[in-house]
Amino acid sequence: MDKDKVVIITGAAMGIGKGIAEQLTSNYGKIIIADIAKNEGEKTARELTSKDCKVTFYYINLLSDEEIEKMFDRIYKQYGRIDSLVCNAGIQIRYWATEFPMEEWDKLMNLNLRAYYVCCRIAAMYMQKKEKGSIVCISSVNGQMYHSKRSAYNISKAAINGLVGTLAVEWGRFGIRINSVAPGYVETEVMLSGVREGIIDKDELLSIIPMKRFIKINEIGSVVKFLLSDDASAVTGQIICVDGGWSRNALPENRNMV
Length: 258
Known about the structure:
This protein is an alpha/beta fold. Helices cover about 40% and strands about 15% of the residues. The protein contains 8 helices and 7 strands; from the N terminus they run E-H-E-H-E-H-E-H-E-H-E-H-H-H-E. Strands 3-2-1-4-5-6-7 form a 7-stranded parallel sheet, sandwiched between helices. Strand 4, helix 4 (about 100-125) and strand 5 form a beta-alpha-beta unit. Helix 1 packs across helix 8, helix 3 packs parallel to helix 4 (about 100-125) and helix 4 packs parallel to helix 5. The longest helix is centred in the middle third of the chain and has 26 residues, at about 100-125.
């Protein structure tokens, strides 16, 4: 492990982002958690910091281009390098497309897409100085498989996949790789609470997942860790679905079918 390596992870105070940060503690000496959830972010930084890896919380509103620019500038001045970036922060807002308030549309798109683009382009400016860098954007299988009442979310995730492909082509010549990880149904506390409260039908979901189980948070982190590492040195512009096969399934199937 290179103790000087620096990675920035947006939206890593909890959930999938926290799981990614935990996985990366074995590869990076400096991890910056960039999030608006102050209490959770500070707690996560304390939990993950070890003698080999310093995890720092950075409070930020990712809807502000100016705050993003200041964050990267401050981190680069402090450490003299930015090796990797994980764009993970995002929200879900549900309405029928015909009823979707445009101010809510703008809010979701600004966080789920614009902030990704701004973070990536600023990170690339610093990575070009070393002619090397790795970026992973967290997308979703909902960027390819669509649900009703999630139009803005689905479109933002599909756009992230386009962003990744486009920037991979543009930045490959500068030694910068960028890929997308698209999770399926991940066993987060939000999902589990939905199952407990009867909002989410577990059996219905499992009928469309060939592996007949939800994805573990650490399984997302493991793929991100690989894509950021030199083991994936020739991998760029790709969308990796971590979904138990859901994106390849044509029809729901009984989990006990043999």
